[in-house]
């Protein structure tokens, strides 16, 4: 329970006196994975995904943390790999991303407030490139970049909706060239996706150089490397490339590293952390953003394909209340108390909403590795309701376990840990679209095979962009679909029950440094805003202890 | 030489096992000065200032570091308090701010790249307030803030000139309210000045709440406290409030803390660091930005007056080449080799330029504490030239010593250390303007008594603003004059030789959280820009060692 961070490091074969172990305050240490020695991967990789989430979240992080602690309880040591949560939304309306109850990474306040500052390093590197781009325009634009077609943003750590669309470069020619521009949140930066996908420092450097800023006046892509920016950006990211070791509330180890968004980016923690973890721990638990159609699909086709990962098990988190919400019993709204109907036994609603679970189990089982359904139990769930979920898991040949990690910590996840150990078998993934070939064709495979769509419908802008990408020689990018997480389709109004649909593609963004093309299937916000009464208003430091309150 | 950081901590009475000692990587530790215990101040405070600098810098940081090391060499232990350098200019055209040669804080690359991230924390806190301000406008503007008169910026860590003037809030009502706005660099933030001037956590919290954002439609000031932002801002600044312990290249201790600009802000390291240092070390050396007319004047009237500091000695750094440049022998341009004339013996040029030294010695000696002139010796300086400088020091009853800390480290600063020890005598400061009374009258005293101006000339905007400040009940703010550092007057074209002048005041900015009114006497840039070929282009990580190159 009260093991120190240095003890956890020793368990992982790290000597805390060695320079590979870099303390960051009393609660975190960064790990220089190269200096630590990479070793041979021998661990079992368990990937945690979920059904279509409600706005309340289904406890995927809680489940990932509980599972790591549960494995420890049954005598199997595990290392849990998570994303570093975004700082901005904590001040808005969202909670943090460090788990909750008795299944937390501690101290959760420090983690939710930016941890070891990697997000800020990403922001500085991103904004340095943006500044060099605008300085290039102002000092003669030798590369003939087309100022009206620049596709590269600036980023900010806070939820600052009024920076979504701006005009920069005003105030005269000494300041810059006026143009319309936009800001995103640090975690939406392509630089964050690059950090999460880089194999090593050299690969990071190369990917940063490959960032496409926009076309020149002849229509050719202009890259960060041409501005000479990638070296300086990698200097700013030197320490951010090291995963952060932290502890759970039960003293088990966690690696936090990179926090790419699961819509515009691929929503998985870093490849560096996962691969290193597999060399140091017999069990590695990692979590993907949103449902199997988003984070897990991107885990498979982007992260795992790139890193030759062979997961031993996929865990699909499900809650009774989510299925009830998907059945249409009530609307879940963040910050509002749940409708009483959701908290009352209703087996038929669970059966109706279970169409959503079936949808995700079809997606998950198609990828190949054994699947376990983890029911994150709430106090109001009844045995009859739970039996419905278990029955559906059995239909798909999946394992099943109830866990109560939020209330009981690792002790509440022993059954889940046993179910995972029983099911686990490292497996070659069955990719649902090819790694190469025409982009539109690969996208169609993805839409059909994963989403269950009848096909895709390309808007003229998307068609033009796909042709441009192939003309630029970037046809071998992977696909990163920006799609609502609140429905099985592209339309959040559809909710969690699948329906026949065709996927409309509005536009495509080039993220050549990250190695993917972002496919836009709806409006998406890459910079959250603050509401009329943001959480920040209730925050303060305790005048006596100095501890944050209101987080 | 190779003493570890934990050994330095023990020398300062800190137990590295105690939670007051917070390691940040292998090279830095933050000190929770409250948890460490404040104790009684018994140290001698030595304040390092300079003549009017040339664009090349006169080695003030090198002198401060050398002096600390030189004191150690002669058996006196010293703690040197410096500002945390700004990240942005390192990628532009400026060098770092961690000293140089054999008088550095190490590792200088990490320090120049942001150290322990305090600047980024300041940026996040500042930008959270800006986001809450714009969200307030968008959600009905209950406080009736006048959007056209908002005086609060956003900040960025990079030299991004194209953000100096922007229009934000575009793209429709869900994003925000369109208005003209501006960005500054993190170090120009009022939040940075507050961090540097706060007595403790409670004072920080209060000052953050006192930030004036602009007038409401009735002309009354709207403060950060009214938006409910100050608590959340102080949460973001929790760790930034702890000074950073680091080592010099000779293993002596340094505290880095806060990096306010010496023009728009007061240009001195934090009061918290200086006061704590005085309880732990018999000698404390601290540096102020630019010449005695800027950093030292602000040290005296803002930092020392607030903190009841009684300096034992003021060191005025002078170089032979600066006096030659001030004599008009050549123009010094950053990044260009120095004109040969400056490098050749020319006693009469030194005598002519010495008018600048006399100007600064008059300012420094008027403040009361004993003064020592530190000649930062360059290899081309001749004995005859040095004798001129020594003669002028004697005219003012000041001590004098030559040092060669850049080339020789502490051994090259032993004579300077002895001169300081000999002169030192804790002294009540003679303030050159009153702490209270009409602002214009106090400003006139400052201009006459410090700058040697014949008086002040208030532009109509400045006059209106001063009246507004007094109407707002803020007449007791101190004065923070933004004035060129390259001349004794307000006009950089005047150079270093004093001439009769009247100080023109263009405008006045309210910085009620920091506790001063910023008096603008010329155009000033609070956001540097990148040139046609910024330093960033030459930076990279060494592919083998991973160490930054090109910094």
Automatic annotation (TrEMBL), chains A, B:
Which Enzyme Commission number(s) are on file for it? 6.3.4.3
At which positions is ATP bound?
54-61
Q: In which pathway does it act?
A: One-carbon metabolism; tetrahydrofolate interconversion
Specify the protein name. Answer: Formate--tetrahydrofolate ligase
Family that this chain belongs to: Belongs to the formate--tetrahydrofolate ligase family.
Highest taxon of source: Bacteria
* Reactions that this protein is recorded to catalyse: (6S)-5,6,7,8-tetrahydrofolate + formate + ATP = (6R)-10-formyltetrahydrofolate + ADP + phosphate
Question: Example GO molecular function term?
Answer: formate-tetrahydrofolate ligase activity
